[in-house]
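Researcher: Good morning. I'm working through a list of sequences from a screen, and I'd like to move beyond sequence-only analysis. For each chain I'm collecting a predicted structure so we can compare shapes side by side. This is the next one on the list. No need for commentary yet; just the structure.
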Amino acid sequence: MKVVKSLLLGSAAGLVAVAGAQAADLPVKAKPVEYVKICSLYGAGFFYIPGTDTCIKLGGAVRVQAEWNAGSGGVPVGIGSNTEAAQGAFTRSATNDVNFRTRLYFSVDARQQTEYGTLRSFFRFGAQQTTPADASNNSSVVFWDRAFIQFAGFTVGKTLSFFDGVSFATFNYNNPRTMADTGPNGLTVWAYTWQFGNGISGTISAEDPNGRFKNVTESLPLVIGGNVPASNGLAGNAGNGFLFPDVVGALRVDQAWGSAQVMAAMHDASGAYYNNAAVSSGHPDNAFGWAVGGAFTINLPSFGATSNVNSQPNVDQLQFSAAYGVGAVGYTTNMNGGSLLVNGNSSLAFTNMSDGFYNAALNGGQVSMSTAWSAYGGYQHLWTPNWRTSLYGGYVAYQAPGALDQAVCQPLSTIINVGRCFDWHVMQVGSRTQWNPVSQLDVGVDVLYSKVGTEFGGSDILAGAPQKQGALSFADQDVWSVMFRVQRNFWP
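Model: Good morning. Structure tokens for this chain:
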């Protein structure tokens, strides 16, 4: 019995030893995996950053477009800036009838709940290449147009101006000049918004004045041709530095039917020093321009069609905005200075703009401010869930101060037939049709007609351009522009 008992105990001990050895070979139990968790607080596309209470959404887009009679970005040829005009006004080699542009965006939107409300930070940047202006060896232009923080009613950073009542970004591809939308580039703001309930809000904002074409001119040479005298009493640009931010106030309502806003702005229109070849001879007193405006969006039934495209409105929309400015031209148009629209190398429409003009002998040496007004509207109809068409148009009119007319335009009338030589207006009408074959893919075409009316009339002999011989006439001009675009959006 003792022998049997010893054998049984030995076998049991051996089994325990083997079991212990096998247990030692088993893997250690892994820690629970922390999967990405969807955040539904702020809409589609947000998820929690693991280990935090912050929700984040990643987004972006790839855009490819071809433009005819539009300079890199949908600006009609000749209705942009003096740089465009100087490059292509009278030469075949510098004029581009066609432009290609490829652009990419990447954006990050991070939000979290706090005892003071939502804390949000957002930024967007990208890169682009415009052919033939940019080289094809990946030396693309890097840009950023949004970077702001929102907290407890404050908005600080680069975003849309609070003077912008509506955005026509879903109506057109081209870049009209008959409104002053800051959407394409953004600007820096320091703003506070009060929420009064029922969708009503009010905002006060200090904004970057350079984002609104801050320009005060002590001179505006009219040396376009050989007959115009080089010395006309105005001989060089002299705007002041950044003395004061623009102050913008807006009262807004957002409801299911749409939105409406009224707004006002104060704009620095001070000059620098009087032009003097020997010494500085003083400067005009500070001057402040102003602007007022209104805008609305109305959502309308789409006759049964409902969009299945997340990035586009799923209703018909009617939008309108208008603005009037004195010494604050950039609140009525996003034209970047003057323009030169040429027709067949034989005639042109000449425009120039500035918030104000001055010199030591003009208006007592003080800044005389220009005035401008604009109106812009559009309607977009949803034909089917995947097809939409918009019709849009606008008008902007600019009038230089009477003191400038007395000092420059009237003396020139003995040489060229001019009345108020710096006054002008621009009219634009366009239509865009877009197809969305699948969600988040835009394919469309935008056609824009632009007409520039100028008060600078008569004719002149062109100097310094051998490509053009004989008399050059000044008259109203027009241009058709077309843009084709394909864009893939990968934000939800």
